[in-house]
Amino acid sequence: MAAPLSVQVEFGGGAELLFDGVKKHQVTLPGQEEPWDIRNLLVWIKKNLLKERPELFIRGDSVRPGILVLINDADWELLEAGWGQAAPGRQDGSPLLPPFLLEVLGPQCLQQLALGK
Amino acid sequence: MPAPRCASCHKARAALRRPRSGQALCTTCFCASFEAEVLHTVVAGRLLPPGAVVAVGASGGKDSTVLAHVLRELAPRLGISLHLVAVDEGIGGYRDAALAAVRRQAARWELPLTVVAYAELFGGWTMDAVARSTAGSGRSRSCCTFCGVLRRRALEEGARRVGATHVVTGHNADDMAETVLMNFLRGDAGRLARGGGLGSPGEGGALPRCRPLQLASQKEVVLYAHFRRLDYFSEECVYAPEAFRGHARDLLKLLEAARPSAVLDLVHSAERLALAPAARPPPPGACSRCGALASRALCQACALLEGLNRGRPRLAIGKGRRGLDEEGSPREPQPSGPPTSEPIPGF
Q1: Any B CB within 8 A of A58 CB
Q2: Is residue B228 less than 8 Å (CB to CB) from chain A?
Q3: What is the mean pLDDT of residues B292-304?
Q4: Which residues belong to any copy of the Cytoplasmic tRNA 2-thiolation protein 1 C-terminal domain (chain B) (predicted)?
Q5: Omega into B333 within 30° of 0, i.e. cis?
Q6: Cβ within 8 Å, pair A79-B3
Q7: Do the chains contact at A117 and B62, CB–CB below 8 Å?
């Protein structure tokens, strides 16, 4: 059982184009059964913040290759032991602990947007 | 899982792992390491000797922003002076915003800025006009073929105007690796042969060119810009970039996820290639119209413009150049691929 959690999410490097151009989002994740971790945070972001082209943001269980994710200013690959595409067997991320800043930088988004794919 | 300690200073928490070495570094040590690597690239390759007047291709994008920022930090140590050169392709809306970013940067860094416009250099042909001209031929993406070639020429011209001795562009390891993949996939031995190495020495009167960020992966460039809070322009060109590079990029990203050093390894492999004698391209001559380096009678830029001016924009695109009335047929054997150029992704 997870209590509501306050998280700051920032998009940059072009990723903000998928979120109506809004870079900073202060969100409160609702209380729920499962503890909040990166995986379900991403799902929540896709459902509640993402405005267009989900395929440019998410691929399978993780973000699309080329998109960078920072958790409290550190590369998530460092923290999550390569969670996501490099370790496809891994199911859960570490639980999110406040203070929590998620930053998504997405240079790869742009080329794909322009390609009209 | 808490972040490990920085492998360099052992004090701060690590922020990332460098792709090549796997070393975990904090933001401060990473930025220092990034800058030291660029310095080493330039010094070891003798790319920018003391006294060089360096024209920096500035698009306002992340690569050229990082390039200009780092070179500016290193300039006193290298004994070079910098001059920003921005190319205005004449793409309404998009380029204005990008140029505004470059102007902000020039003011903040106190660097001289020169803007060179396609309209002025190429007889009124802006990219918007080229796109309209090529749209009728059914393949709108071919306007990007023009842009890559013309932008290179425009940057060269801008560099000359400011009295530069060298030209630098912000191509990173990912750009280089994508180009290597594309050249392999298209069997373009000529470009594979020319593509390796850190810079072009400047044959045929062209200014020497190099890419100091060549050994930095795109991810590191983005993170460096992020940690240093650099202001850059991150929207993409309104005209669709060539589809093929997109495929190479996707493949590269998948490879990188499985093996982080793959990007750099690919670039190093290409540098070490030796072509079989039959595959080597013929020595280039000079363009009959403008004197620039060319492997045929007309250089790419002149051939493309000729097609545009005749109202037949696709004239110089593709494997042949029928109708251009060039002197002599292509030399036997024909090792090089089509005369098209992949759009160079930004500076």
Answers
A1: no
A2: no
A3: 83
A4: 285-315
A5: yes
A6: yes
A7: no
Domain that holds residue A61: 5-81+98-115
Give the mean pLDDT of chain B: 82
Beta bridge partners of A59: A62
Identify whether A88 is part of a domain: no
Domain spans in chain B, listed from the N-terminal domain onward? 27-274, 284-318
Residue B254 has a pLDDT of: 85
pLDDT digits 0-9 by tens, B160-204: 999 999 999 999 999 889 888 888 888 877 777 666 555 566 666
In a domain, A28, yes or no: yes
Tokens of B201: 């020495």
Cα end-to-end span (Å), chain A? 40
User: CB contact, 8 Å: B246 with chain A?
Assistant: yes
Predicted confidence (pLDDT) at residue B306 exceeds the cutoff of 90: no
- Rounded to two decimals, the pTM is 0.82
Number of domains in chain A: 1
Q: Report the CATH number that the domain containing residue A35 is assigned in CATH.
A: 3.10.20.30
Task: Say whether B58 counts as a known binding-site residue.
Answer: yes
**Exposure string (b/e) for B154-175, b if CB count within 10 Å is 16 or more?**
bbbebbeebebbbbbbbbbbbb
B16 contacts A17? CB cut-off 8 A: no
User: Tell me, what's the pLDDT at B140?
Assistant: 53
Residue A108 pLDDT > 60: no
Give every strand in the sheet of B53-57, ordered side by side.
B113-117, B81-88, B53-57, B166-168, B209-210, B199-200
Among the partner residues B235, B241, B253, nearest to A14 by beta-carbon distance: B235
Q: What angle do CA B118, B174, B78 make, to 5 degrees?
A: 75
Question: pLDDT tens across B243-260, in order?
Answer: 677 788 888 888 888 888
Q: What is the CATH number of domain B27-274?
A: 3.40.50.620
Report phi then psi at B285, rounded to 5: -110, -150
